[in-house]
Amino acid sequence: MKDAFGFPQSLLVLGGTSEIALAVTRRLIARRTRTVWLAGRPSPGLDEAAGQLRALGAEVHTVDFDALDPAGHEDALGKVFAEGDVDMVLLAFGTLGDQARDERDPGAAVRVAQTNYTGAVSAGLVCAGALQAQGHGSLVVLSSVAGERARRANFIYGSSKAGLDAFAQGLGDALYGTGVHVMVVRPGFVRTRMTAGLPEAPLATTPEAVATAVELGLRRRSETVWVPGALRVVMSALRHLPRGVFRRLPV
Asked: Which residues contact 163 (CB under 8 A, 6 or more apart)?
């Protein structure tokens, strides 16, 4: 069960090698979390992440999970919930893709959409149903400011995150009053392996800063968290710019 500050004792991470997810997990272990399930494709990276978290004192399990295999989500994730209540699910998997390549290769573009949106819808609904059945828990969804308004430079990724963000907000409304809390996290440019080599955007942040914001959001039972917070104002302005003006911006 969660404590008075909303920190989970047990945590399921969907996207177990995500640098942001692991930063959040380390922070929660330092607070109260004792049992962690890392869900992802079997890999040395997943095993290494589990070992690092065990060294912090947590009991860590790995779970075979593939975002691109929705047919297997109910079985894979159901086994986790069958072990006992899960206080928090962190949905953190995703892929950036390669905009230039994906525009030329519809199959690659579809893979981005299936990972970031279709896979998240499937896994999110499975976990939401399990959390609702146990009567408590948090579902924290890692979205992106890229979903606020599609940019020429990454509209395939941005559109998939827009779908994810809308889904998570609607799911939060559907679960309101059930004991299940849904929190959408919207970071800007985060310095990770996924963004290595890309031009750094203004207000760039780190996985550790996102983890700090998630912790504060859990304390406050926030529904939406921006990282950094200044992006809320920036994106509000950009969202309402006339399209012709927005198109000329160097974004």
From this structure: 113, 116, 117, 147
